[in-house]
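Here is one record:
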Amino acid sequence: MFFKSMKTLRYLFAIAWAISLFSCEGQEEIGPRTNPRFSVASIQEISENGVQFGANIYEFGSDQVLEYGFVYSRNSVTPTLESDDYVSAAGKPDKTFSLTAKHSLALGATYYAAAFLKTDQGVVYSKSEKFVSQGSQGFLITAVEWPEKIYKDQRLIIRGQRLSKVPSNYTLSVDIYSLSFTLLDSNTISAELPSLLLTSTTGREKEVELKLSIAGREYRERKVLQFEDAQFTSQPTQKIDFDEEVIIRGDYLDQGAINLQYNSVGISNITARNKQELRFSPYLDKTFFEGDVASPDLKLTMRGVEYNLGKVFDLNPSRVTDSELILDGFKEVIRGGNFSNKESGERNQFIDESGKEVFLGQGGFYKDSLVLYPSDITFPAREMKVRVKNFGKFSNPITVKVNYPSIRVPVNWEDEGTFNAVQKGVIQRGDFGFTLTMDGILRHSLKETYRTALYDRLPTDFRIRNYSIFQATENFFIIGGGKDYGQAKGPVFVYSVNDRSWVNLGQFPEGIDSFQASYEVPDGLIFEQGLFIDYEGVGNVFNSQAWLYSFKTKSWTRLTDSALTRSNLTFAWNTQLFSISYMEDTGQYGLYRKVSPNSPWVLVKLVDQQLGYFMQGNPPIINGKAYLFSIYTSIKELDLTTFEMRDLRVGDFGYDRSMAFTQGKSVVLISPYNGFDIRPDLIKE
């Protein structure tokens, strides 16, 4: 026999006695016995309902017997009550006793069975006997206790009868998930519900199947499980910067994967998460798009359940530290805060007071500064008030002053047919400029848009001839004259900008075909430096004749001959007249002045030879300084008081198709494809 104490120590000395007794029944005992002696368990009957065991008591001994029975195991030849299944009865048995095991016996499995007696001093086991099971009646489930709602770290309690004590006899699952479990006692199983049952389920409920198998016997149960619903605490709208977090508070917020959507665009940038709090940075890792807004509708999807949270957060507008920015260098910086530092359709846009976007050469983008490289871009104006726009939000305004000597400005030509019109003279009226071209008269808006449109046509009975004049005075455009070979000379037309009308003056007097210069006097127009065109004789002859055409009498009157014969540019300033003219005796060009229409021309300065090729009559004049344009030289600044000149080296503008006007301190140059705002006062020597 085998012996084991209540403290799990076997009565080792009893083994020796048992062996001696079974081998030599007639041998005399040595001393009185305290523990019982009994036979090996016998297998009396095996059926599909279980196994009947039997044993004989040889001697009860002096220890009190509390319980008796049979223990059986598939895994050990020495089964014990601590780890194996058993069948038992309370009290002291008869000399011969038997019990039937009706559970936890798998069909066709080999088991080892031993009889046992439990005394007040311990447990005595017999030697085990081997048998092959034909099955058993199985277990009985009396209750399955599910959590009311499924969430994390929950357990399933299964109550029943005839449950096996051997964990290896069990398989337990819910759908495809195997469950780990604990045997609380001979009638109770506690199983841990798998986390994937929660996190991998979509929807608020799911029907599942519980399957319990013990020693080949199986129990199944179907159950519709209810899952805990995410709960959200009502919070005020959170005002955030681009790099700040949004916090969503509530309960049951950590149930598997979460999908966040802003205005139906999926975002995955959750930075922290637990049962009662969810944190994410809406803009930290997000790629921005045109459709993004500062306060989007937020939708959260958890386990396939959608929660429309509405407008949880609102982006703060960008902030600008300085109230004024002067652009005069290669690199400029706008300081502030909450600027966007991501590539996007809308990123740190500069918006002017009219709502239009202004490009200021944006370069580096940082949360506290914007780096600009503005020296070679197009500006709508020299001074503008702009705000930084991000996601529909505007910063406080900043005044931008552009102090580069020359800047590009936008141009807008309504009639593409006038793109290549060569200008022959300009007149300015406030914020509008007018240009005489061979295609008609153009009008230019000098405010912001610099829009150019065809304003009036040339006279219908006018055609261009050799040496036809295209000239401009302060108020009139003059065209006509000239003569083609074998043809009569053409009439002269005068256009009044004030009246918007053409007047036919007829032909030039006394056979003169054209004049080199013209200017206004109170009673009409004076034409100087006539030209006779001779195709067959000595050739063209320039002369010094001067003639007055009176608007009042509509007649020509010859005046004293002019001192000039070959002027290339004549213009008026205040009451004075100026002319740059070719001096035939020296082959040079000189600057001449008339202090009044009736006074003589006086040479005041020799000028650059290349200034003989001016393209614009009525040059722009600012504070007594005229700005002269030539095909071959840079812009010349002529001081009409001191007669000093300086070069304004600000680039090549294609002067033959450029129209120059004044706007405040600026000379505005308009050409078909570009416009320029030139500030002579900002040009260093």
Remarks:
- The helical segments are 12-23, 195-199.
